[in-house]
Design a protein that fits this description.
With 410 residues, the protein is of the alpha/beta class. It contains 16 helices and 15 strands. Helix 7 packs parallel to helix 8 (227-239). The structure holds N-(iminomethyl)-L-glutamic acid and fe (iii) ion.
């Protein structure tokens, strides 16, 4: 973290997502001809070039000229499964020949396949396999990444997956935030209730005690946990001091959004099949509605989440990659924002909000995503004077540089 004060000038437009996006189709504030001062990893001053330079003591300040480029906040990916073992390339090929995600799962592939592969791996194997994926995320502008367990299922292997996430934290400048995920009951568990009791005490409580998780997520779906089972895990998570996130309404409408509102979750994620009453309940309970459009892109034949209906109901929207080996092998959060705007009915302003301030809110973070004074100096310099270039050309050379805590990501 540089202790020297740095002033960034030559910023064509600096995008500050508003604190709230509720009911707003354009939840961004844009400062033209801007400057920003960073010190000790944080934003110390930001505004028009004139106002910032007028009040700056210019001795001992390093000046960086961004030469007419736009600046946007570093992206916050609030939902990933990026730590996993092996791959499921054959499943993508099978889907292209006509098999479905569900039929592959029924014949022993899917999540069960990733569980087998993870159980055969060491912490070191997991770190070595996952680090390049984290690097591919940060190289596309993501500076904060939530990462879930959920491919171990037994206490030994869930904690091993969380240990790998902890190890990765020292290998990247990005912030990595761990979540313990209750992903489903293993097929060989003799008794569901006993399994859930053990998962609560030996995985959820233990992960919280060891500081290996900050959030708890539960996959609420007919193929995973019922609502009454999820309620038990959620109560244990809350009592352990973990914040709650839920996978709901992905494969069918199970009134999962209402359930997330009732439990007071931080975010409800997926929502491909959520009904209007569920959207209203999320808005009323201030639960962040997290869209994962990478799944529809990747699986084909699946429903796009209706971002417009959720936003019009008053929800605040986050977009995340859901990066995982089965349903969304995608590490480019900017691409997911583009899908938010082209496929899910959001405006480009709402889509950028969703991968910055929205992602931060879905993680309960108040120190990033808005490029305000006092926030972390995590930002992306767009290779264009118009910030929208970042969403316009997915996969293109749209990023000029990325700063984390005020220093250049190499
Ligand atoms: O978010 N929904 C559950 N879990 C993941 C998929 C995991 C996998 O297929 O490996 C998801 O889509
Ligand atoms: Fe997921």
């Amino acid at each position: 973290m540089p202790s020297q004060r740095t002033v960034f000038v030559g910023i064509s437009e600096l995008v500050q997502p508003l604190d709230s996006s509720a009911g707003n189709r354009e939840p961004l504030s844009i400062v033209r001809d801007a400057a920003m001062v960073c010190h000790a990893g944080m934003i110390e001053a930001v505004g028009t070039r004139k106002s910032v330079l007028d009040s700056l003591d210019s001795s001992d300040v390093l000046e960086v000229d961004l030469q007419g480029r736009a600046v946007i906040p570093g992206f916050v990916d609030s939902h990933t499964h990026v730590v996993f073992a092996g791959d499921r390339i054959d499943e993508m090929a099978a889907r292209a020949r006509g098999e479905t995600y569900e039929s592959i799962a029924k014949r022993g592939g899917g999540i069960a396949r990733s569980v087998e592969l993870l159980r055969a791996s060491s912490v070191e194997d997991l770190v070595a396999a996952s680090l390049p994926r984290v690097v591919s995320m940060t190289a596309r502008g993501t500076t904060t990444i939530e990462i879930k367990s959920g491919y171990g299922l037994t206490p030994e292997h869930e904690l091993k997956q969380l240990q790998a996430i902890k190890r990765l934290r020292s290998l990247t400048k990005a912030t990595l935030l761990p979540t313990v995920l209750a992903h489903g009951v293993p097929k060989d568990a003799p008794n569901r209730d006993a399994y859930i009791d053990q998962f609560c005490s030996d995985v959820v409580e233990q992960a919280a005690r060891l500081g290996l998780a900050r959030y708890c997520d539960i996959f609420v779906e007919s193929i995973a946990y019922s609502k009454s089972e999820a309620r038990r895990i959620a109560e244990c998570a809350k009592a352990s001091g973990l914040k709650l996130k839920l996978h709901v309404d992905q494969l069918r409408d199970g009134d999962g959004a209402d359930f997330a509102a009732e439990l007071g979750a931080l975010s409800a994620d997926h929502l491909e099949c959520t009904n209007a009453a569920g959207a209203a309940a999320l808005a009323k309970a201030n639960v962040i509605a997290t869209l994962l459009p990478g799944c529809a892109l990747y699986l084909g034949g699946h429903t796009w989440p209706d971002g417009k209906a959720l936003a019009d109901a008053g929800c605040e929207i986050a977009i995340a990659t859901d990066c995982n080996p089965g349903s969304s092998m995608i590490s480019d959060l900017g691409l997911c924002a583009t899908l938010g705007a082209t496929q899910c009915g959001l405006t480009v302003e709402q889509a950028l909000w969703a991968i910055t301030r929205g992602g931060a809110k879905a993680l309960g973070l108040h120190d990033r995503g808005g490029l305000r004074v006092g926030e972390r100096a995590d930002f992306v310099v767009v290779a264009h004077s118009d910030w929208r270039m970042a969403l316009y050309h997915p996969g293109g050379n749209t990023i000029s540089s990325i700063y984390v805590s005020g220093s250049l990501l190499s």
